[in-house]
Design a protein that fits this description.
CATH topology of the largest domain: Jelly Rolls
Low-confidence stretches: 50-57, 68-115
Shape: globular
Helix content: 25-40%
CATH class of the largest domain: Mainly Beta
C-alpha cells in the first residue's frame, strides 16, 4: 500500500472505513511494528495539520493513539454485546460509555499539545476505561477520574491522579513508578494496586493487590509501606491514617465491571452508585447512615440495584421527574432515599 494513501491518514482525518480502522488497530497494538508506526507518524503528521514533533511529543501522540484504539475496541465490543442482549436489563449499564467514550480528550489536528508539557487521560462520569502508558504500565480509570503526566514521563515515570485508578506497573527497579495525589505519594517498582482520591471526599485510600509499595506525604516524609492485601486509609480531616488487612479483589472488582459493597454505610453506597451510574442519589434521612449494605452487582442497571436495596434495607426511593433543559438534553437522574418506617422494626 502506498504511504500517501495510508489508513493512518484517513483515521486521523475522521474519514475511515472499518477496514482502515482494523489496519490501524493492528499497527498500533503490535509492538514489533513500533518502528513502522513512528516512521509513519514522522512522515504524515505535518500533512495532517500538525507541526514537526520532537521525540517526547511523538511519544505523547503515540500514547494517545494507542489509548484511542483501546477505547474504540472496548466500544465495539460493548456495542455488539448491547445489541445481542437487548432484552437483558444489565446491558443498559454500558449505554453511557457508548454515547461518550470517544468524545473526551483525544488528540486531533485542531487541538494543540497541552500547555506546560503535560498530557491527560480523562474518564467521564458513568464510564470506566483502560489505559496504557509508554513504559508498558497498564491500568483502569474509574468514573469521573483523570490521570495527568508530563512529556518527560519516560524519564521520571510520575503521574498525578484525581479520582480512582488501578495500576499494573511494569517493573523497572532503576526507574520507580510514582503516583501523586493531593495528599499522598505512592512509590513502586512493579506491582498492582488501587488508589482512591476523589476531590471533595474526606479520605484517600491505597489498596495493594500484589508486590510492595511505599507511601509518603507530598513533602516526601515516609508514612508507611504496604504488603499484598493491605489498605492504607488517610483521614483528611486530621491527617491520621490506618493500615488494615483486606481482600484486595473486593476493591478492584470495578475493573471487571463489578460493583462490590462490603458492609458499607448508606452514605458510601449512595456516593458510589452516583458515580457508577452518573446519577444524583441523595439521602434525605440521616438515620439511613446507621444501615450497611453487603452485595455484589455485575452489569445491573440502577433500577434493579435500587429495588434490591429496598428489599434488604429499610429504605424508600423516589425519583424526581426529569425535565428537558434549554438545549434539549436532560439532566442526570435524581433519586432521593428515605427511611421506610414500616420496615424499621424488621431490621433491628
Amino acid at each position: 500500500m502506498e504511504q500517501a494513501d495510508h489508513p493512518l491518514k484517513r483515521y486521523f482525518r475522521g474519514k475511515f472505513s472499518r477496514k482502515d480502522y482494523l489496519a490501524v488497530m493492528d499497527l498500533v497494538s503490535d509492538p514489533a511494528r513500533e518502528a513502522e508506526l513512528r516512521q509513519l507518524m514522522a512522515t504524515h503528521w505535518p500533512e495532517m495539520g500538525g507541526e514537526a514533533l520532537p521525540d517526547a511529543s511523538l511519544d505523547l501522540v503515540l500514547s494517545r493513539i494507542q489509548h484511542k484504539i483501546m477505547i474504540g475496541e472496548l466500544q465495539t465490543r460493548k456495542k455488539f454485546r448491547f445489541l445481542a442482549t437487548l432484552q437483558r436489563v444489565a446491558a443498559i449499564l454500558f449505554l453511557p460509555f457508548l454515547l461518550g467514550s470517544l468524545s473526551w480528550f483525544y488528540y486531533s489536528r485542531d487541538r494543540s499539545l497541552p500547555s506546560a508539557g503535560f498530557a491527560e487521560i480523562e474518564c467521564p462520569e458513568g464510564a470506566r476505561t483502560r489505559f496504557t502508558l509508554s513504559d508498558g504500565t497498564t491500568g483502569h480509570l474509574n468514573s469521573g477520574s483523570s490521570l495527568r503526566y508530563g512529556l518527560d514521563f519516560a524519564k521520571n515515570r510520575t503521574v498525578t491522579l484525581s479520582g480512582e485508578a488501578f495500576f499494573l506497573v511494569r517493573e523497572d527497579k532503576k526507574k520507580p513508578f510514582m503516583v501523586n495525589t493531593p495528599h499522598l505519594s505512592i512509590l513502586v517498582t512493579g506491582t498492582a494496586f488501587n488508589v482512591i482520591s476523589y476531590p471533595g471526599e474526606t479520605c484517600e485510600e491505597v489498596i495493594l493487590q500484589s508486590g510492595t509499595l511505599e507511601v509518603s506525604n507530598p513533602a516526601g516524609t515516609r508514612i508507611t509501606s504496604l504488603q499484598a492485601n493491605q489498605k492504607l486509609k488517610m483521614n483528611l480531616n486530621d491527617r491520621s491514617f490506618t493500615r488494615s488487612e483486606v481482600i484486595a479483589s473486593q476493591y478492584t472488582g470495578w475493573t471487571e465491571g463489578k460493583l462490590v459493597f462490603r458492609n458499607e454505610d448508606m452514605g458510601q453506597v449512595a456516593q458510589r452508585l452516583s458515580r457508577w451510574y452518573n446519577a444524583d442519589i441523595l439521602i434525605a434521612d440521616r438515620r439511613l447512615l446507621d444501615y450497611t449494605f453487603y452485595a455484589t452487582f455485575r452489569d445491573e442497571q440502577l433500577d434493579e440495584v435500587l429495588k434490591l436495596l429496598a428489599i434488604t434495607t429499610p429504605i424508600l426511593f423516589v425519583e424526581e421527574k426529569r425535565l428537558p433543559l434549554s438545549d434539549g438534553t436532560f439532566p442526570k437522574r435524581k433519586i432521593i432515599l428515605r427511611l421506610n418506617p414500616a420496615k424499621v422494626k424488621a431490621f433491628k
